[in-house]
Amino acid sequence: MTLSISAAVLLGIIVAVLVKGGYVRIGSALACTLFGFTLAATGLAPAIHSGLASLAGLVSIL
User: How many CA atoms lie within 13 A of 42 on its CB side?
Assistant: First the structure.
């Protein structure tokens, strides 16, 4: 049985845990989120998507 989870959901959970634990403040989390949305609109987005897909493929082999 395989479990499939979106990278966005996984990263959202990680950010929520870090904010809840006090490691990251709300302002920092918001700034990082806005930076991610801005970065997704640039020409670098396909390279980032490709890198994440390669990482997911590597993890699924292990």
Answer: 8
Closest CA to 8 of 37, 31, 28: 37
DSSP string, 1-62: ------HHHHHHHHHHHHHHHTSS-HHHHHHHHHHHHHHHTSTTHHHHHHHHHHHHHHHHH-
Gap between the Cα atoms of 49 and 28, Å rounded: 23
Model confidence over 12-60: pLDDT tens digits?
888 888 889 988 888 888 888 888 888 888 888 888 889 888 988 888 8
pTM: 0.58
User: With 0-12 CB in 10 A as exposed, 13-18 as middle and 19+ as buried, what is 25?
Assistant: exposed
